[in-house]
From TrEMBL:
Record has Ion transport as a keyword: no
The species this protein was found in: Peptoclostridium litorale DSM 5388
PANTHER family, per database record: BLL5188 PROTEIN, TIS1421-TRANSPOSASE PROTEIN A
Chain segments carrying region Disordered: 104-125
Keyword Isomerase appears in the UniProt entry: no
Keyword line: Plasmid
Coiled-coil residue spans: none
This protein's name: Insertion element IS402-like domain-containing protein
Database matches in InterPro entries: IS402-like_dom (IPR025161), Transposase_6_like (IPR052909)
Insertion element IS402-like domain ranges (all copies): 8-82
Amino acid sequence: MGLKRYELTDVEWAKIEHLLPPERTGKKGRPSKNNRTMFNGIVWIARSGAPWRDFPERYGPWETVYSRFRKWLDDGILDNIFRILSLDAELEELSIDSTIVRAHQSSAGAKKGAHLQKSEEAEAD
């Protein structure tokens, strides 16, 4: 199976594999899902912005991945992974998406002072 969009490469996986809890072996019941598959599913959600219910089947049931995500989050495992990975981050080409920058209302075509007129009219009533 080839590498899918948003999945970790072997090099990336090697950097974080030891930070995750060991996979269960030898226990009764259903075998646990592979940590790499679970983490790739978590990365897919984070990068795609899709809701959990639109989760691709290749990672398993969304409820299973969500459960692992919550456990790793509550246990501080994900914080540790992202803290370690951020140490290697290259910030030379950092950019900010302009959609997060608030524009003044007049930049959208509102008339200058229109908000003042409305508030003055409301006070007069």
